[in-house]
Structure formats: structure tokens, C-alpha cells
Amino acid sequence: MPHINANNIQIAYEDYGNPEHPAALLIMGLGGQLTMWSDELVEDLVAGGYRVILFDNRDIGLSHHHTGEKSPGILRQIVLRRIGVKLKAPYELIDMAHDTIGLMDALKLDTAHLVGISMGGMIAQHVASLRPDRVTSLTAIMTTTGNPKLPRPSGEIMKAMIRRGPQPTTREAIIDQSVATFEVIGTPGENQNTNGMRDRITRSYDRSFHPAGLMRQMSAIVASGDFRKHTRSIKAPTLVLHGTADPLVPIEGGRDIAKLVRGARLVELDGMGHDVPPRFLPEITRNMLDHFASTKVYS
């Protein structure tokens, strides 16, 4: 697994396809390692003529871990944030955006098609705002703007994301809990044990298990708050993909991006939750490839 210094930390990454082809840089969501991307998606993007780069965000997988740095209690942080009190987090989304830009610098990528899913879509919005000259296009999948007026996840969803009490300690129990989380936040009617999700979760666990990093990433999202000022300033051609049945990041988040970014195209995926099941993958890939092909380097 190659590592590279980006923004003064070590980032683990994988690089697929012809290095002479246009780059697509994929940014994963909360707690997700690069192994959570579908192999089929990567293969189809490479076959479509793109160099595909995946990486572990800081604090997850094989990238830099903030060992010893604690995040505020998430529930307390959320409650205080809603009344305007911001607690200090070890890092925020803008720091993770600088990691992404640093990775592009280290790989000598002048520009790239940015694809961000969930938290990765939040990071991608920051990158597109900070460095418009580096972003050929933006694809924001099942993500949002931090707008405090948008619908929030239900109590059941938050319980699935922030489990209190004793945590599982064995490999199988930890994997089972992660699968159970996607059964709550994922597409209704999907079998998360047989649709490839359990396989990706297992592969990720065996590669690296670092739950403290997930909590710090969650803290970074809460600390970053409302970042619509970044979304409004995006100039890159933007595609927004969002499931109508997403209970974790309701579709109003995607609609908010499409409203704020001039010329953005919104594709609502009927019945999809906060995951990318195989039956939705062809439509998602087709939209991404069409979007890439229709865009030029922003200047």
C-alpha cells in the first residue's frame, strides 16, 4: 500500500488506470476506508478512460491516526452546536479538504474530477470552493451543506450511528454491528449481508480497525457546522446524486447543494438509502461518466 506525504501527514492511497488519462479522485465518507468503494465502480471508471485514485481520509484505514487526541462527546457536541456553542475538535472538514489538495499536489495532479460520498461530498465541496482551479468537475453523492434548517436524522438513526454502552469486542460481532447499521441507514429492502456490503465491511475491518478515528471524523462534521458559504462559491460543473429514501442525510441536503451551485444537475434516485446497492450502480456510473465527459477544466 503506497503512502504519500500530504498536508504534513501520511495518506494511504491506491491508483488505477492509465496515469496519462484524466484523473477522478474519489473521497470516501464517515469512517469509510478506500476499500468501501465498489470494485465495479472503479473498474467501470477506468474502462471509461479515467485514472482513478482512492485514498483513506485522515484518522481512518492506513492513513495518519490522531492517536491520543480526543474529540468532544458527540451528543453533547451536537446539542451545544444547535444552540450556537462550538466545542473544539481535533480537526474540521476544511483540514480534510487541505489533505485532499495536498494529495493532489504530491501526485502532481493539476486538476481532477472530484467525487465525494456523504462526508466525502462535504470535503469535496470545501476543495471545490478553496481551489476552483484544481477541480474539473464535482460529483456530490448523498451529501449536504450543513444547513441547520434542513431535516435531521431521526432518533432511531442517531442511535444506530452513536451506540452507547458496551461495544462489541470480537471480529464477527464488530462486523455484524456495522452491517446492522447499514440495515438501518441503507436502502429499504436490501440484504446488506448478500449485496456486497458485508464483504466490503469485512475487508475493511481486516485491513484496519480504528473506531476512535470515526468518532473524531464525526466530531469534525459537527464542528464544521453550516458551510453553505463554501457551497455557494463552487464554480465547477456539479452533479448531485441522492437517494429519495436516505434516512441519514435526507434528500433535502442534495437539493440544497443543487439550489446553491449555479448550473448544478440533480439526479434523485428513487428508493435509494444511504448506500449504493448494486441495482443502483449502473445508473450512478452512467451519470458520472456522462458528467465527466461533458465537462472541461475550469478556468
Would you spell out the secondary-structure blueprint of this structure?
Elements (H helix, E strand, L loop, with lengths): L2 E4 L2 E8 L6 E5 L11 H9 L3 E5 L18 H9 L10 H14 L5 E6 L1 H12 L4 E7 L13 H7 L9 H15 L11 H11 L3 H14 L3 H5 L5 E6 L8 H9 L4 E5 L11 H14 L5
Parallel strand pairs: 3-4, 3-5, 5-6, 6-7, 7-8
Antiparallel strand pairs: 1-2, 2-4
Helix pairs in contact: 2-8, 3-4, 5-6, 6-7
Q: What is the succession of H and E elements?
A: EEEHEHHEHEHHHHHEHEH
Number of strands: 8
CATH superfamily: Alpha/Beta hydrolase fold, catalytic domain
- CATH architecture level-2 label: 3-Layer(aba) Sandwich
Description:
The protein is of the alpha/beta class and 299 residues long. It is built from 11 helices and 8 strands. α5 runs antiparallel to α6 (171-185) and α6 (171-185) crosses α7 (197-207).
Provide tags for this entry.
299 residues, alpha/beta, Rossmann fold
Brief synopsis:
The protein has helices spanning 39-47, 74-82, 93-106, 119-130, 155-161, 171-185, 197-207, 211-224, 228-232, 252-260, 281-294, and strands at 3-6, 9-16, 23-27, 51-55, 112-117, 135-141, 238-243, 265-269.
